[in-house]
């Protein structure tokens, strides 16, 4: 297999790519890792491995190419919800994704922190997270991602992340839960990028993955609209500083396909 020129930094860099052939997508971008969906990201249907030959073939291809795989769980999952008809299918879907992620040899499954309705008691949501973790079999780490919006979100503001970690830390197996820091979500969610890495790490003790995305929206707007690095409202220096300080593998979840994502990875390599 041909290898792209390794980056001067030692941080593994990659992108969220199409799931049909993520190994080819990694090679096109010179990526060390890729993040994929397993099946339809908007549905409750179970995970599907669309790579030709299935899970075993994808695992083998990733290993031989030296590409690390991460799985992003479907968006409807909200294990904090007080609504049984959202929470229970979401937990099941999350478990199915953890199992499937292990079958493809993935390093982790990223899932959003979720949210409650405006009038719900946030304590219920954190307790629902505790119960979820208590019931999960995690053959690979579960990485909870901070989100941009919502007034009653479980992982938007630092205070909520602290309560979430208190709840999860009380459970056996809670140490298999890690943190995915999204720079667009942090900025749009109202967290100062100058201090967010230090503050998150003080709470969670870890940052396992960074989603490096610029934001089409202003600070604390609550909007979740990613854009290419340097093209949005995040200060370029702050964005690079977050990636450097976090010291974790990086995924760009930016628009524009191969060319634009390759440019985003080059943007990062220049600054790291
Ligand atoms: Zn993200």
Short summary of the structure?
The protein is of the alpha/beta class and 272 residues long.
Note the beta-strand portion.
5-15%
Number of strands: 10
- Note poorly predicted spans: 1-8
From the helix content, strand content and strand pairing, which structural class follows?
A: alpha/beta
| CATH homologous superfamily title | Divalent-metal-dependent TIM barrel enzymes
Helical content class: 25-40%
Distance between the termini: 26 Å
Are any ligands bound, and if so which?
Answer: zinc ion
Q: Supply the CATH architecture.
A: Alpha-Beta Barrel
The name of the CATH topology is TIM Barrel
Largest sheet: 8 strands, parallel, barrel
CATH class identity: Alpha Beta
The global form is globular
Number of domains: 1
What is the H-and-E element order? EHEHEHEHEHEHHEEEHEH
Number of helices: 9
Sum up the structure in keywords.
272 residues; alpha/beta; TIM Barrel; 8-stranded parallel beta barrel; two-stranded antiparallel sheet; 9 helices; 14% strand; globular; disordered N terminus; binds zinc ion
Describe this protein's structure.
- 39% of the residues lie in helices and 14% in strands.
- It has 272 residues and is an alpha/beta fold.
- The protein is globular.
- Mean pLDDT is 95; it is low at 1-8.
- Residues 145, 182, 211, 253 line the site of zinc ion (ZN).
